[in-house]
Write the structure tokens for this entry.
Amino acid sequence: MIFFFTGEEKFLIEQQLTKWKKAFLTKYGSNNYYAYPDIIDSADEIISACMGGWLFDEKKFIVIKWIPKDGLNKISSADQEKLEKFFTEHIDNLSPDNVIAIVSYKPDKRTKFYKFLSKHSGIDLKEFKAFSEKKLIAYLIKTFQINEILAEYIIWKTWVNLFTIHNELEKILKISNKITKELVDKYVNTNTEQDSFALLDNLKNKEKAIKILQNLQANQEDFFKILWLLYWNLKNIILIVENKQDGLTSKEVATKLWVHPFVVWKIYKYNSDFWVYKKIFKKLIDLDYGIKSWKIDSWLWYLYLKKIILDM
């Protein structure tokens, strides 16, 4: 049995693989479990594991990540090509007793190997697409037995990464069988990525924007981390609004730019007059250059960033 796991909701993929792994280890033991999740440095080793499974060999569960070529790729081109050639030529000759899970979170769907795996009749494609805003809220409501208002508030606090959401909410579930807003406020950390987005989202509300900056400073967040997040959000705002002006739907933009649908939905509410974000982007580049060239003291980043926000 061969499965092809793909999609940007990595948490759901890992959750499914973990569930299968536990069930397999309980029945067959750890000696029959093979995982190549991090850095693949020997395609031959993987090929050898996949070719086994005849006569007296026991059932195997083999997990292979990063093929087809992934946007988060951690495999050399040589090993990549060798594995793709092996599976293309021998897929029909592999033992049906073994379970092989091929995992690629963000593959290039235009490649020949992706099309081969996704369309082969002997491979079960399991695609976990990034949640839209409605689906993410519905998932939280169902999974954690909370109402829609609290689900939206949790997303506002943690942003859209399911690993982060689960980690934060499971802290609450260790001390309470019910998640409430009071417990979320007390135990859930606001994600820095969300802070950077909220900062841009509140440019017209200077008081709130400055308060977000004060929180970032109080938490001693690294300036260059915040700067990178602001760059990332500004780039997305500019590209998404430009595509919106070209007549693309939010779904089409999410697919084209490989940006989470929830992020696109949030940005779609922006006015088409977005020159202010381009202006901030330029000012941040100037600030970045000033600090790296020692023209501006790095300890004063907060004051300079505050001035950029207040001048908008």
Q: What stands out?
A: The longest strand covers residues 99-104. The radius of gyration is 23 Å. The chain has 15 helices and five strands. The longest helix spans residues 223-245.
